[in-house]
Amino acid sequence: MHVENTSFEGLVVLTPRVFTDSRGHFFESYSLQHFENESLHFNWVQDNQSHSSYGVVRGLHFQKNPSAQTKLIRVLQGEILDVVVDLRKDQPSYGQVYSIVLSSENKKQLLIPKGFAHGFSVLSEKADVLYKCDAFYDKQAEAGICFNDESLAIDWKIPADKMIVSEKDIILPSFENCNAGF
Predict the structure, then answer these.
(1) CB proximity list for 95: less than 8 A, separation 6 or greater
(2) What's the domain count of the chain?
(3) Active site residues
(4) Is-contact 57 121, C-beta < 8 A?
(5) Is residue 123 within 8 Å of residue 87, measured between CB atoms?
(6) Which residues, in sequence order, are bridge partners of residue 79?
(7) Is residue 171 classed exposed, middle or buried when 0-12, 13-18 and 19+ CB atoms within 10 A define those classes?
(8) Residue 109 falls within a domain, yes or no?
(9) 112 near 135, Cβ under 8 Å?
(10) Is residue 182 domain-resident?
């Protein structure tokens, strides 16, 4: 697996080595040994999976401390624009946005450390997204940032009239008012 560090401390893109033959393909999507060799030490405790249609925008979500989560995101079917916002005030990338296309074709994964808000938009007809978490979901710690916060200027790659956003995500606070605490 190829590990690519981004300009955001701890935010890593992982690309597996894919073996292809007449039967199809095979790759390791996760190996504890490989992660440890790369000094990526996490105790994954929960897997989450979503199925969405074109135009769905989910996020931007995070959990506050002490229930903050590191996530490992990958796409099983389809294509998404995965988006994160750095909420860590002690980092030079604080308040900055990082986005990457993850798909079943490119097989890339995004490792998102604690202290980031996360969301994605579905660019294909359908998408199945799987992500590992190193902390359990905690309803009391649930928080987020409004997906269309003007100060973040996120281009979700979906026309506004085609976006499908939950009521819960529409009413999330702005980045300025999210009180993340990281």
Answers:
(1) 85, 86, 151, 152, 175
(2) 1
(3) 61, 131
(4) yes
(5) no
(6) 103
(7) exposed
(8) yes
(9) no
(10) no
Answer yes or no: are the C-beta atoms of 62 and 137 closer than 8 Å.
Answer: no
Question: Tokens at residue 114, please?
Answer: 């604690």
pTM of the model: 0.94
CATH number at residue 113: 2.60.120.10
Residue 164: domain span: 44-170
DSSP 8-state symbol, 137 = -
DSSP annotation of 164: B
Which residues have C-beta within 8 Å of that of residue 105, sequence separation ≥ 6? 79
Q: CA distances (Å), 107 to each of 14, 18, 128, in order? A: 9, 9, 13
pLDDT truncated to tens, each residue of the chain (182 aa)?
899 999 999 999 999 999 999 999 899 899 899 899 999 999 999 999 999 999 999 999 999 999 999 999 999 999 999 999 999 999 999 999 999 999 999 999 999 999 999 999 999 999 999 999 999 999 999 999 999 999 999 999 999 999 999 999 999 999 999 989 99
Q: Which two tokens stand for residue 27?
A: 């790759």
In a domain, 20, yes or no: no
Spatial neighbors of 41 by CB under 8 A, at least 6 apart, are 35
Which structure tokens are listed for 132? 């590992």
Whether residue 137 contacts residue 57, with contact meaning beta carbons closer than 8 Å, is answered with: no
Residue 74 lies in a domain: yes
Nearest Cα to Cα of residue 79 among 117, 53, 49:
53
